[in-house]
Write a structure and sequence with these properties.
Layout: H1 2-8, E1 15-18, H2 21-30, E2 34-37, H3 47-56
Parallel strand pairs: 1-2
């Protein structure tokens, strides 16, 4: 949990790692933390996540868009 880490670790030593723009990246940016975006390991199986991935494409660097 990021909030627990913020209590025990200096903010400049925390980085968030994630593969979702609307949760991981946005959350890190809102908390002014370093963010490491990673490519998802496997394809999404549910309609909701497939839709969400399509909505993320315009915000990804071209090298991540297939």
């Amino acid at each position: 949990n990021i909030l627990k880490a913020l209590k025990n670790v200096p903010e400049n030593e925390i980085a968030v790692v994630g593969d979702q723009i609307y949760t991981d990246v946005l959350g890190a940016n809102l908390m002014n933390l370093k963010m490491l975006y990673v490519v998802p390991i496997e394809k999404e199986k549910t309609a909701f996540f497939k839709f969400k991935r399509k909505m993320e494409k315009p915000f990804l660097p071209k090298k991540f868009v297939k």
